[in-house]
TrEMBL record:
Modular enzyme with four functionally distinct domains. The isolated Hcy-binding domain catalyzes methyl transfer from free methylcobalamin to homocysteine. The Hcy-binding domain in association with the pterin-binding domain catalyzes the methylation of cob(I)alamin by methyltetrahydrofolate and the methylation of homocysteine. The B12-binding domain binds the cofactor. The AdoMet activation domain binds S-adenosyl-L-methionine. Under aerobic conditions cob(I)alamin can be converted to inactive cob(II)alamin. Residues 90-218 form the B12-binding domain. The chain holds residues 632 to 849 of 1170 of the full protein. This is Methionine synthase. Methylcob(III)alamin binds at residues 100-104, 148, 206. Belongs to the vitamin-B12 dependent methionine synthase family. Transmembrane segments: none annotated. Residues 1-88 form the B12-binding N-terminal domain. Catalyzes the transfer of a methyl group from methyl-cobalamin to homocysteine, yielding enzyme-bound cob(I)alamin and methionine. Subsequently, remethylates the cofactor using methyltetrahydrofolate.
Length: 218
C-alpha cells in the first residue's frame, strides 16, 4: 500500500507500532504534514466513526484509534507550516470541549492550526463548563471563546452556554466560534444566531476556524 493509505489503515487498526517509520516515510516523500493529517489520518478516523456507528467496532478499539491519531499528530506537529516573523499575537482564543463531551482531537487540531498562524490559544481541555470558559477568557483577556463538541447532546449544551452568556450580560463581550461534527451550519447560523444577541459563527473545520478568527478579533 502507498504510505498515505497505510497511515489511514493504522488509524482504523489502532496500530501504533511502527508509526514513526510511516510518518517519516510520508514526510520524506514530500507530502506536507497538514496534508497527511487531512487526506490520510482523518480519512482513517472517518472509517472508524462509520464502523463504530454501525456496531462493527467496539469502543476500546475506537480509543486505540484515537491514541494512534494523537500520536501521529504529535509526530507531525513540528513539521507543520507556521507563520514566521510575526511580532506578538494576532489575538487570543479560549478553546474548550463543552461540558459532558470528551472528544478533543478536533479541538486540539484547531489549537495547532491557530497557534501556528500567530494566535494565542488558551486550551482549557475537555468537559468544560461555560463558567470555566468565562473565567479563562477574563483571566487571559481573550478576544474569542471557541467551543468544540461532537455529541448531539453537545449542540444543546452549546445553546445553553449561549443562553448563559446572555443571561449574565456577557453576550456582547466575546464572539463565539463553534465547531464539531454534530453541528450544522444552519443550526449555528440560523437557530443559534437568532437567539443569541452576540456574534456566533460556525467553523466546519480548523481552516474555516482560522479564516474566521481575523474578523472575530476586532
Ligand atoms: Co465518540 N462518538 N464517543 N469517541 N467518536 C462520535 C462523535 C460518534 C459520531 C461515533 C458514531 O456513533 N458514529 C458518536 C456520537 C453520536 C451522537 O452524539 N449522536 C460518538 C459516541 C456515541 C461516543 C460515546 C458516547 C460512546 C460511548 O461511550 N458509548 C463516548 C462519549 C463520551 C463523552 O464524550 N462523554 C465516545 C467516546 C469516544 C472515544 C473516547 C473513544 C474517542 C475520543 C477520543 C478523544 O477525542 N480523545 C471517540 C472518537 C475517536 C470518535 C470518532 C470515531 C472520531 C472523532 C474524531 O476525533 N474525529 C467520532 C466519529 C465521527 O466524528 N465521525 C465519534 C476527528 C476530528 C479531527 O474531527 O472532532 O469533528 P472533529 O473536528 C473537526 C471539525 O469538526 C472541526 O475541525 C476539526 C478538523 O478540522 N472542529 C472545530 C471541531 N471542533 C472545532 C472547534 C472550532 C472549529 C472547528 O472552533 C472552536
Amino acid at each position: 500500500l502507498p504510505v498515505g493509505e497505510r497511515l489511514a489503515r493504522r488509524i482504523v487498526d489502532g496500530a501504533r507500532k511502527g508509526l514513526e517509520g510511516d510518518i517519516d516515510e510520508a514526510l520524506a516523500s514530500g507530502i506536507p504534514a497538514l496534508k497527511i493529517v487531512n487526506d490520510h489520518l482523518l480519512e482513517g478516523m472517518k472509517v472508524v466513526g462509520e464502523l463504530f456507528g454501525s456496531g462493527q467496532m467496539q469502543l476500546p478499539f475506537v480509543l486505540q484509534s484515537a491514541e494512534v491519531m494523537k500520536g501521529a499528530v504529535a509526530l507531525l506537529e513540528p513539521h507543520m507550516e507556521r507563520v514566521e516573523g510575526e511580532t506578538g499575537s494576532k489575538g487570543t482564543i479560549v478553546l474548550a470541549t463543552v461540558r459532558g463531551d470528551v472528544h478533543d482531537i478536533g479541538k486540539n487540531l484547531v489549537d495547532i492550526i491557530l497557534t501556528n498562524n500567530g494566535y494565542t490559544v488558551v486550551n482549557i481541555g475537555i468537559k468544560q463548563t461555560i463558567g470555566a470558559m468565562i473565567g479563562a477568557a477574563e483571566e487571559h483577556r481573550a478576544d474569542v471563546i471557541g467551543m468544540s463538541g461532537l455529541l448531539v447532546k453537545s449542540t444543546v449544551v452549546m445553546k445553553e452556554n449561549l443562553e448563559e452568556l446572555t443571561s449574565r450580560g456577557l453576550a456582547g463581550r466575546w464572539p463565539v466560534l463553534l465547531g464539531g461534527a454534530a453541528l450544522t451550519r444552519t443550526y449555528v447560523e440560523d437557530d443559534l444566531a437568532s437567539m443569541f444577541p452576540g456574534t456566533v459563527r460556525y467553523a466546519r473545520d480548523a481552516f474555516e476556524g482560522l479564516r474566521l478568527m481575523e474578523p472575530l478579533v476586532k
